[in-house]
């Protein structure tokens, strides 16, 4: 979704640039489209199909279109960039970015800036990311996609007021473009301060623009889930299925609702349908959520067993090896969380060993010192969680310090979140509750699993009202993840 479109530039003698007419807007303004630099009409047409798919969140189809585009024009830098944006593994993202940078010599300044923005994710340089995104809006002040790119950068740094202001500028520039509305809808749905009524308004606006797009009804269903209107959400997902029988997300989100309602067998049947409908790249990821039904049911052993079976099945799937790595990472991370939370520490150690092996594989594929440092910081964090859960607090603190040392060079204001999460757990388990509160307040509070632990710290510190309020927020979240599945019942009990 990080693409942007165009302003006229001088064409290189070797490269033609697509020159799309500006759209007139009220007040005499016009939108700009950052150039799509290619000498192939076929490649350009495929690129635009891919961009349309990416705009509604269909990364699989988008990735396929962009790959067809680079078959027509192997030096199509913008298409390589969007292969990265729709990638399914670290290896795929890195390879696409290498190609995008390699072929960026003769592209527009806007395209170069977009490539530069994406490249900052490999070295975790958020300050440079903001700088480049702002430069993009300065060079293309009438480009909705430029402002959406800046919005996404701010959102990634939890700067949500700035993110919303940038998205609103995109709305003003292109009122009939659905993507700014869905961007704002998701912002108010998931990010503090939340406002579900605004989220609903923006999602409905996207539907009004394109009532035949199934994914927009899935988005509206997500809002109704957050509002605890579960029956209405199920109707929204049903509408999406009516419009597109192959929409695996609609099936899987109906299954989430049945998990929350306690209809576990029905939920597993829905998950089976979603897996059956899913494209190959999503089958393994969707199967994780079927395993979570056992967590909602209170059977962590069954969830652990299901994820172990999924890991074995992944090797037989008809997807590229690098996508198998990505699918395994997701399953192993979920399984590690389950084992750590429920006291299966020997299993957790085995799972984390496998996970670290895959991380080192990715380090070798990317091949940069900055990426290696970031990934080894992640390894220290997870190993620290295991040490803390086992009660080896001295080792856990050493690993927390190692994590902090590894991320210290990063130009990212969120770089210390995992350090504080680990230190929060150490303090919580040692019953230093006020210290745990201080640390958890500086961890990643966009996840309900972290908020649940902050609620436990509040409760232990005797701050009962704050604890109850946060337990209630966690309990009524209604968005599935391994952490939520593990803590939802307890949060409901405590709220």
Would you kindly provide a written description of the structure presented here, covering whatever features stand out?
- The protein is mainly α and 495 residues long.
- Among the domains are: 17-155, Alpha Horseshoe (Serine Threonine Protein Phosphatase 5, Tetratricopeptide repeat), CATH 1.25.40.10; 176-278, Tetratricopeptide repeat domain (Serine Threonine Protein Phosphatase 5, Tetratricopeptide repeat).
- The chain is built from 25 helices and 2 strands.
- Helix 3 runs antiparallel to helix 4, helix 10 (196-209) packs antiparallel against helix 11 and helix 14 (264-277) packs antiparallel against helix 15 (280-297).
- The protein starts with 16 loop residues before the first strand and ends with a helix.
- Mean pLDDT is 91; it is low at 1-29.
What is the topological layout?
Elements: E1 17-18, E2 36-37, H1 41-55, H2 59-72, H3 77-85, H4 90-102, H5 109-123, H6 126-139, H7 144-156, H8 160-173, H9 178-190, H10 196-209, H11 214-226, H12 230-243, H13 248-261, H14 264-277, H15 280-297, H16 300-314, H17 321-342, H18 345-366, H19 369-389, H20 393-407, H21 417-429, H22 433-440, H23 448-460, H24 464-475, H25 482-494
Antiparallel strand pairs: 1-2
Helix pairs in contact: 1-2, 2-3, 3-4, 3-5, 4-5, 5-6, 6-7, 7-8, 8-9, 9-10, 9-11, 10-11, 11-12, 11-13, 12-13, 13-14, 13-15, 14-15, 15-16, 15-17, 15-25, 16-17, 17-18, 18-19, 19-20, 19-21, 20-21, 21-22, 21-23, 22-23, 23-24, 23-25, 24-25
